[in-house]
UniProtKB/TrEMBL annotation:
The chain crosses the membrane at residues 25-46, 66-90, 111-137, 149-173, 185-207, 236-254. The lineage of its organism: Bacteria, Bacillati, Actinomycetota, Actinomycetes, Kitasatosporales. It comes from the Bacteria. The keyword Iron-sulfur does not apply. This is Transport permease protein.
């Protein structure tokens, strides 16, 4: 077999390993998935009427707020899911399995590739589940074309890939699972500081730059535009730039940390 074939085989094996872990120990994924679902139900049914008056003209309109909030919650779902990746990577690094893998005749990067691909697949499944909850409570995207749906799916996959690489790096630098969870917490908090729940113009002036100049806001506005037909402007290019930049940063960061000689 060629070197490429061997690398693909090893990466596939590590991917199956991570998917089996996710299937056998689903509690972590389910706990992280509950966060966006609970926020969706909370903001729609408790705050929906009040919040809807702040995103447009007219009186309370819960259906309008469902349409506004779902794109942001889909991206928040990705941030929540990849926290589990950071924890899983940290567990691998601290429980001795990586030391054993280093002594075996396998492709060195297959362990990380397995985590990344497995995490992206889990993120997409989680997004589908949260999207299904959104549809069940009234979310509709009737104006989106087939091309826009494909573009929205591509954006979700690319954004998931970028956050996954960052989460892998966070897991590699964490001494234990608790530290990995804390280090990855910004991936859950940043959507709360974006345009996911309220428009930028409704925020205090001093806070608007914090919400605007971060990766989640342009991605949310792009996804919202694709699904709901709102204006996208330059947010699409910003979302792609953020995603590619974070992917490259996370890849080289993770590669450098993983290739270091183990300190423990």
């Amino acid at each position: 077999m060629s070197s490429l074939s061997l690398a693909v085989r090893d990466c596939s094996t590590m991917l199956r390993r991570n998917l089996l872990h996710a299937r056998r120990y689903p509690s972590l994924t389910l706990n992280l998935l509950l966060t966006p679902i609970m926020l969706l139900l909370l903001f729609v049914y408790i705050f929906g009427d009040t919040m809807s008056m702040g995103i447009g003209s007219g009186g309370p309109d819960r259906a309008k707020y469902i349409a506004y909030i779902v794109p942001g919650l889909l991206l928040m779902t990705i941030g929540s899911t990849v926290v589990g990746t950071a924890i899983s990577v940290s567990n691998d690094m601290t429980e001795g399995i990586i030391a054993r893998f280093r002594t075996m005749a396998i492709h060195r990067g297959s362990v990380i590739v397995g985590h990344v691909v497995g995490s992206v697949l889990q993120s997409i499944v989680s997004v589908v589940l949260v999207g299904a909850v959104g549809v069940a409570i009234g979310f509709r995207s009737t104006d989106a074309t087939v091309l826009e749906w494909f573009a929205a799916f591509g954006l979700l996959v690319l954004f998931s890939l970028s956050l996954t690489w960052i989460a892998v790096g966070m897991g590699l630098i964490s001494p234990n699972a608790e530290a990995a969870s804390n280090n990855a917490m910004p991936l859950i908090l940043l959507p709360l500081l974006s345009s996911a729940f309220v428009p930028l113009h409704s925020m205090p002036g001093w806070f608007q730059p914090i919400a605007q100049y971060q990766p989640f806001t342009p991605a949310i506005e792009t996804l919202r535009g694709l699904l709901l037909g709102t204006g996208i402007g330059n947010n699409a290019w910003l979302a792609i730039a953020w995603s590619l930049g974070l992917t490259v940063l996370g890849y080289f960061w993770s590669k450098a940390k993983f290739n270091q000689d183990p300190q423990r």
